[in-house]
Structures are given as structure tokens and as C-alpha cells.
Amino acid sequence: MDRRSLILLTAFILLSLTGYIWIGYATVRSDFGQLVLLFGLLCAVYLVALYRKIFSVGFPLMLGMAMLLRVSLLFMTPNLSDDYFRFIWDGLLFSHGYNPYLVIPSQFIHSAGSVPGITSSLYAELNSANYFTVYPAVCELIFGLAAKVAGGSVLGNVIVIRFVILLAEAGTIFLLYRLSHKLSMSPDIVAIYAFNPLIIIELTGNLHLEAVMLLFLVLSIYLLILKKQIYAAISFGMAIGVKLLPLIFLPLLVKRLGATKSIIFYAIVTATLGALFLPFYSADLIPNFFSSLRLYFQTFEFNASLYYLFRWVGYQLTGYNVIATLGVVLSAFTFLIIITLAVLEKNVTWLSLFQSMLLCLTAYLLLATTVHPWYIVPLVLISIFTSYRYPIVWSVLIILSYAAYRTMPYSENLWLVALEYVIVLSCMGYEIFRNRSGLNLRPTVP
């Protein structure tokens, strides 16, 4: 490495560490100005570093730098999301013999049940006290592990869960590197994921288990390319066992595997999920889980795009919020889009799988009622194996959604939401037009 490259790398690391530590340990969600300023600094440094190709230093050093930035957040308490309180609650219940899928916090806290660490102060922090848990089995196993190790300590639970996420992130980055070689692509594209500020802050910082889901999803695709379909199916089932999102990609595998192998693949995925949920088995497990899932799609709304336009039309026609109906209709429409894309797909290769996944996930997000910042993390990862870069733009702009938390009760600034989506959709439209014109069809690093 020459002196100039060393100086650039050192400057990148020092500026990035400053930004992450400042956001992680000295920023609160309500301080939107400070958050945007620091996040903007991190994104600027990240984009300049990609443009100047300073990450072309060999994979071991790239991985070391990526993990150093993440480890700098090891002892922070998540400050942009309060979901982790439910993680701890569920983990404490599970570690003390309770089935988290059968317990509503608001009922448990007023019952005779007693669990060390389950306190009124922890209950007061829950954002879903009246719902059954909506986290799949792998999540609950991780939460239970954290509670076993850390007991009722909030920070202790956070560190254990974060350690799992750190291991998952290291594994994902390594698999992306291996995939880049298998697909005959430059390993430099891995830096797009490894150093993206949104990914580091939302996964490692705020404990979102999309990190674990992506590890199993990428592993599954890698194993499919190696023709190890049984292990790939088990890994795919594990990914769904963390988050249900990978379900939307299953139709894309039918043409690649063929009818018979697809049936076997689906069966193994189903068996894997059954095995994962076995420790939580109860006649009420599925009804309770899906009752909360249904409430999510029919009640919650945040940082949406097309849904907000349809909601406005609904207000004009009915005079009230039509989310209960509209949420179901948009979900059904998303399913139809995904099936249509899978059926009409012509260029059926493993490399083209990523572009098809990108289109399916984009459709899902654009029609969703809720799009939290960490929801687009999978989009960024998938995009690195395509020629599309609008997910990077989205990962920079979606921080604007945190403007909603400046006040209590929370209130979205729809002008900022509109700004976010106008820019993202413009970039997406330009890239679709460019690619249809036959330009720049191979994945590139910005």
C-alpha cells in the first residue's frame, strides 16, 4: 500500500469512527438536526471512499475495517429504536419457561406471573405491550440466549444480541466476497454493503436482526450456486425463521430449480421452519402470531410512499383512514406482482436472480404501509450484484424519516417523506431507462 492510500484509509477510519461513536453514544432520536448532520457526514465519507476506490486493499483488511467500525458500537444502548425492549422481554420469558407466543405483556404484568428482570420499568418501555410477539423462532432463540447469559441486565442483553449480530455481519461480508468470485465480479462491490452507514447503524447499532436473516439468505444462495440444494433449503428456512421477508423470493427459485427440485426445496424449508418453532409449539401459536402480523399490516403506517397516496384518496372517498382494507389489498397486489415477475422472467441465471429479487423487494417496499429505515438494508445488499444503485441513494435519504420523532406524540413530516421518495423514484426511473437502453448492464462500484 502506498503512502497516499494509507493516508486516505486512515482519514476514512478516523472520520467514520468519530461519526459512529458520536451517533452511538451522544445522540438521541429526538435530536434530528444532530442525527442528520452526523449521518450526512458518514454518508459523504462513505460515498467519496467508494468513488475513490480506497477499499481495494485486499479482503482481509477490508473485513477488518468494516468490523472495527461495527465493534465501536459494542457498548451503546440502541438510541434510534426501542424494539430491543421487547427482545429482552421475550428473552426473559423464554429463559424462564414461558412461551412468548402465548403471553401478551399487558396481561402478564398484571397477573400473578413473576420473572426476574420483568419489571414495571421494562414494561413501560415496550412499544407493543398489547400484542403477542411477532418475532419468528430464530429471533426468540437469540433473545432467550441473551437472557440466559445476561439475566435482567438491559445492557448485558444488548451486548449479547449485538455480539450475535457482529458474528452474522462478519459471515455475511465473507459470503458476499465468495459470491463475487463465484459470479465473476469484482470483490470491491462488497464494500458497498460492508461500509454503508445505514447498515452499520441500524443492524449493529440498533440491534435489528435483519443481520442474521441476511447471513442465512446469502448462505442459501451461495449453496444453491454450489448445487448443495438440501443445505441451501435448510439455510433458507433459517432465514425465514429470523424474518418472514425471504418468503417473497421463493417463487423466483422455481424456474432455476425446476418443478421437482422446487417441491423438494419447499418441503425442506417447511420442515426447517417446523423444527425451529417446535420448542414453542402450542395450538395457539399460529393464531396468536398471525393475529399480531395482521394487526401490523392493518394498523401501522410509517414512511410509506404509494400507500400514502392511496390513503389520501381513501379519505376523500370515505372520510376515514382505510388502512384496514387498503393494507390487505396492497399486500395481495404485491403478491401478484411477485408471481408475475417470477412467471415472466426470461433470463434465468443465478446472477439475474439478484435483479429479480431487487424488483420484488422494491415492489414490496413501495406498496408497504410501513417502511422503517432498516427495512431497506436487504435492498442495499441485493443491489450490489446488479447494475442498480438507487438503493444506495435510498439508504442515504431514509434518515429523513426520523424527523417524525422530534415531537411526542410522534408526527411525520410528509414533505420530507415526499422529498425522500421523489429523489429515490427519480433515480430508480433513470436507472431502469438506462438499463433498458442497454447501457451499463454489469454491476459497478459508484
What does this entry look like structurally?
This protein is an all-alpha fold and 446 residues long. It has a domain of 147 residues. Helix content is 66%, strand content 0%. The longest helix is centred in the middle third of the chain and has 29 residues. The chain is globular and about 65 Å long. The C terminus is likely disordered.
Largest sheet: none
**Strand share of the residues?**
under 5%
Low-confidence stretches: 438-446
**Helix content, binned percent:** 55-70%
Count the DSSP helices: 21
Mean pLDDT: 93
Strands, count: 0
* Rg: 22 Å
Oligomer: single chain
Question: Which key phrases capture this entry?
Answer:
mainly alpha; 446 residues; 66% helix
Fold blueprint:
Elements: H1 3-26, H2 32-51, H3 59-71, H4 84-95, H5 105-108, H6 120-124, H7 137-150, H8 154-182, H9 190-194, H10 197-205, H11 210-225, H12 229-242, H13 254-257, H14 259-277, H15 285-299, H16 306-318, H17 323-344, H18 350-366, H19 377-383, H20 390-397, H21 414-436
Give the structure's gist in a few sentences.
The chain has helices at 3-26, 32-51, 59-71, 84-95, 105-108, 120-124, 137-150, 154-182, 190-194, 197-205, 210-225, 229-242, 254-257, 259-277, 285-299, 306-318, 323-344, 350-366, 377-383, 390-397, 414-436. The chain has 446 residues and is an all-alpha fold.
